[in-house]
Write a structure and sequence with these properties.
Elements: H1 12-23, E1 28-34, E2 37-44, H2 52-63, E3 76-84
Parallel strand pairs: 2-3
Antiparallel strand pairs: 1-2
Helix pairs in contact: 1-2
Length: 85
């Protein structure tokens, strides 16, 4: 696992999970990783009928604020999987 400098206080995995649930209320979210690199898996009814890219865009939109700036807590999403519930 690499190290990515950040000034973020608290659990980054919790922040990712909370941001996704705030944007997609019925989302079941699994987040793992650290050092700025994360794996995310999201299951939601909202993904039904959407392409993989459309579904992933919804997730990225929810966590954009955690990826912005030089000291952002999320440097990379190494894997993002979305599933329709």
């Amino acid at each position: 696992m690499s190290h990515h400098p950040t000034d973020f206080q608290g659990s980054v995995t919790d922040a990712i999970r909370e941001a996704i649930v705030a944007a997609i209320s019925d989302a079941e979210v699994l987040v793992s990783g650290g050092g700025g690199h994360f794996t995310i898996e999201v299951t939601s009814k909202v993904f039904a009928g959407k392409s993989r890219v459309e579904s992933q865009r919804l997730v990225y939109a929810a966590i954009t604020h955690l990826m912005r700036g030089d000291m952002a807590p999320v440097h990379a999403v190494d894997s993002l999987r979305t599933h329709a519930a």
